[in-house]
Amino acid sequence: MLLHACNGIGRLARLMLSDRKANFTVMAALSAPVALALAAVAIDEASIYTERREAQAMVDLAAITAASNMTKVNTAVVTTLTDNGMPGVVVQSSGQTIEPAAGKTVVTVTPGRYVASGANVGQRFQASVTPYNAVRVTLKKIPARYFASSLIPTPVIGTQAIASMTPQATFSVGSRLASLDGGILNALLGGLLGSNISLSVMDYNALLSADVSVLSFVDGLATQLNLTGVSYSDVLASKATVGQIATAMANVPGLGNTAKVALQTIASKSTSTVQIPLSHLIDLGSVGKLGLGQKPAGLGVDASAMGMLTAAAGLANGSKQVDVALGAAIPGVLSTTLAIAIGEPPQSSPWLAVGEVGAIVRTAQTRIKLIVKIGGGNKNVGGGITLVSVSLPLHVEVAYAEAKLMDISCPTGPDSIKVTVATRPGIVEGHLGDSSSAGFADFTNKETFSNTEIAAVKLLLIPVVSVVGSAAFNMANNPATTLTFNKADIDAKTIRTAYTQNFTQSLTTSLVSGLSLTANLLGLPLNLDALLGFVKPPVVALLNSVAAPIDTLLANLLGALGVRLGEADVRVTGATCGRSVLVQ
Known about the structure:
Shape: elongated
Number of strands: 30
Number of helices: 13
Low-confidence stretches: none
Mean pLDDT: 80
């Protein structure tokens, strides 16, 4: 009986063990909470992921908007995020620490400068470095959680975006001609180019009024230099002669026939084989990265035909002295001889640039030595004194003028564009006297001056007495003048001028009035105060009689070289505020 009972219990146990339906039920009941928790975490993680993506999209949009409104970056970011449903946006200022909380979004807005050419991507954005062209927006917030708030630590969503907008302008610095003198311009260009130039005033007028498309000009140069499949910058990294430059300018579409023929004439007459670095003439900035034939959207790149030609001629001269005989075109003047030397601007600054805020263009440093011989007509000035001749040895040095692009803004859109340029005219230094000709074209050393013969007189039966003297005049540079160009100015290619404020009288008259004279007999200085008392008034009167036409002559010479006494002309021929884009 006992054995039978034991066998029955065994069979029952085996039956229970073989039936697993109850086991699964128990296991399901025990694992349900874990499964629900995992599901809650998965749902919340998916929600957080989606919210993070949405936050990144909104931060991207906020950065793009802020870069388009660089003067109101905080307002732009807050408005953009709030309008797109971001709750409780708070801007964290420098030095603050604000922790995000439910219903509170913390953003940090950092303006700075983005340089796309940096080797290290992480270092391309430079926080708080001016001039600003980019904005970094950082956002932190607590995401919404629906089921797993008690199971996982409170997460913080962190996103960041950097957007940049690069306004650009095309601008140049130089000078207008006060008046046109075909003979002077022909002699000057001929001396610089080593050729015999013979253009009419009408030809020069055509060149002065003509603008050329710089990109079409570079296209033409590429053809002459046999460069294909390259960018504009690749062409400007090359060298060309003034003849090649004039030919390329002559072939630019839209150029008037008179200007075209004048440029072709200059190209055919130019015998200079000097290859000038084209990058010293033009800097296209980021536009240079475009392939030949491509055009930048919304940005005009035009230049003065005459300005480009004379700048190229100056570069081709290579700091050599050019001697020009101007004859006796001024009434009362027996002869006029001229020497000119042109130096390169510092750091090879171009004459025309397409650039961002901070770009600089400069004119060349220029030295002029003008020796004017004036007939005294053996004039008896009293006391037995006869005035034989008078000389005006005039030396003028004009340092480079500079224009720096300070700001480009579009407060209410493209039609409200405004370009601001800080301009400094070149410092002018003038001397009446003698200088060493050896150092005239050496711009690394300052010229020194000494007394020289200003007049020759006869005193009764005494041989010719030499009257020597010298004078100096300095025109100090004033602080930079701010020139502003609006859309109408840019479209019309208006010239604006910065003046040196303390330049109130003509250079020659200023030097003559400060002239100090000494009488020399047989090379020995004499204390002949009485003689000088008779001689100085007629000498000064003769010099003053030619001062005005000589000042005009100087103005024309310097103007043809792109500089002017105490003035600097700036022109903005194109500008755009660009388009804000994400860069990181």
